[in-house]
Amino acid sequence: MTEPAVFLAHLMADQGLDPLMQHLAFLGAPQMDEQGATLHVRLQDFHMNGGGSAHGGVIMTLLDVVMACSTFVSGRNKSCVTVEMKASFMRPGGVMGTLLHAQGFLRSSGRSLAFCDAEVRNEAGELLATASGTFKYIDRPTSVV
Fold first, then answer.
1. Which domain CATH number covers 134?
2. Per-residue pLDDT tens for 90-118?
3. Which in 21, 62, 75, 115 has the greatest CB count within 10 A?
4. Cβ contacts of residue 57 below 8 Å, gap of 6+?
């Protein structure tokens, strides 16, 4: 197993990938397949905006994280940072208690950059948001957790 795979294999269901994910209650390891990563988040009160729907920043963070996790399928022993990201929102993100499903896809990977897409859907399968992003591979720093 590569180092990211070992890291994900040891991540407990009540742990976040990093301190921000822990704080946002994006918990547990993403599910990985040959295309990319999948994350699930149950919306809580602190995920809501003033209108009672999931905050757009929460949705964008979810999209960013699932795309970054999707870079692991390249087989590189590297972490990555976001170079650029574009998101489009189709409908409100859901009310408290809604389970969101994020799917990320690694579309292409070169020596130093990875290109990914992602989408977030609600429990009914309705498309809420999509994103595309470019990620730069970096050496994994010592864990901050």
1. 3.10.129.10
2. 999 999 999 999 999 999 999 999 999 99
3. 62
4. none
